[in-house]
Amino acid sequence: MDYPSSQSGGGVGNQVRALARALVHAGHQVSVVALGKPNGSTPDVEEDDGIEIHRVFPGNLHWYAYRIPGLGQWLTLPLRELEYSWAVYKCLRRLLRQKSLDIIEATETSAFFVAHLVRKPSLVVRLHGEQYTFHKYTPGVPVTVGLRLSRILQRRVLRRASFLISPSQAHAQEIERELGGNRLPMGIILNSIDLSQIQPANDLSADKRTVLFVGRIDRGKGVPVLLAAARLVIKEHPSVQFVLAGASHPTLPQVEIDSLIRDYDLESHVSQTGHLSSEKLARLYREASVCILPSYYETFGLAALEAMAYGKPVIATQAGGLAEVVEDGKTGLLVPPDDADALARAMIELLANPARRTELGNAGCKRAREKFQIEDNVKATLDVYERVRAERGVSGVSTLNSGLPNVIGS
Prior knowledge:
The chain is of the alpha/beta class. It has helices at residues 11-25, 61-65, 72-98, 112-117, 131-137, 145-160, 169-178, 223-236, 254-263, 278-287, 302-309, 340-351, 354-371, 374-391; strands at 30-35, 45-48, 51-56, 103-106, 122-126, 163-166, 186-188, 210-214, 241-245, 270-272, 290-293, 314-317, 332-335, 407-409.
């Protein structure tokens, strides 16, 4: 699994950490196997608020395979999938010798050998979304042979899991279509955040107009569409500022972003922050007038939920699970993906109307606190774990916390 560090962290990692912390606070024991890179300062085992984190460092065979003429583009991603999966499996095998575990929860990636070589404990896969799906929906980003081969390995994991958890109905349907309509054991558990750590903020000033994008600076996140729309917005709101908060991504080179900013005459209107700590990101959310998520596909849309929790109106696309997070016209506005004109119109409308921003922001904050509580996520997750244990005929499992299941994430 992904797990945040001081140098990096994305939506998946933050969701893993939020759920793991909530499970620990509820009295459970949680270990996380997280992929990382050896840098001489990161220990193999860390502790974070009661969570035991085991960082594994896969090999570089896929890196060398990339340099094979003709075959490199075919081999790199499936080899990386196998290398990452083997590193996770070796760590899990070591942990199984040290402690009793009841459930393994994994993402689609890096679980191939766990799914095939570990019979007990049961495997639950949480569908955070993978490159294959995002690339399939993003114009200009090819679904390569290597990506298809890697996805074949991931599908084997999905078919062998005891249960699949999807963060949205839309993504559950996407997975069912991808697997040929097979009715796999699957349930919906909405993503959530620890709302106790978030203090809602009102629109600070009707005169200060700031549009905030939070996420990878990725073609699939619709960043080029956002910049195209920004060109139209500044004609109506010359003082507007656009903040892009997130790490760079190979699908959208920095040189292309810089070129778009120059072509659209946005040099004085766009700032890029790179990856930020949670504290700095919280400040940006509080200062934003509008938060925007113009993705081509989202399994859920955690950035939209975070914005709502801060009391900010959201403009998002009708893509994947976003429509299950943002209620069009009630907590934000939804527009078609890849439509710069519609995106611009929505931004112009909200930037011109502080009262409407406040109305949508307040409704979004209320929805976040009523429907996306981390406690509800924990309860639903534990219900799945107990169901899987019961179906496997597990009873009287030895645990360290009075009958509560021990959980490991990988």
